[in-house]
Amino acid sequence: MPSPKKKTRKQGKAARSSWQLQTAKARLSEVIRLARTDGPQIVTKQGKEEVVIVAVEEFRKLKQRARQPLSLHQFFAQSPLAEANINLDREPDYGREVDL
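User: That's the sequence. What structure does it adopt?
Assistant: Structure tokens below.
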């Protein structure tokens, strides 16, 4: 007799990504587990999105991105090549000669 299949999360109840505040408080362990396995979990209060719970690894990636320079000018100014004395001069291009 074949053994019964175990229910996977896909076969069972669908994973949530949005929680009402009172439900999130009551089921905090589940919210945290889902944030780690399924991605960010949104907590709402009175129907409005208030906060997002994310895994610490994802939070650190976001913080790392926030440390990038604020503008393209700052990016190039802080580049290790900023003082490399690269010659960027070009000879003028007047187009090609065309026989008419």
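Strands lie at 18-20, 41-45, 48-53.
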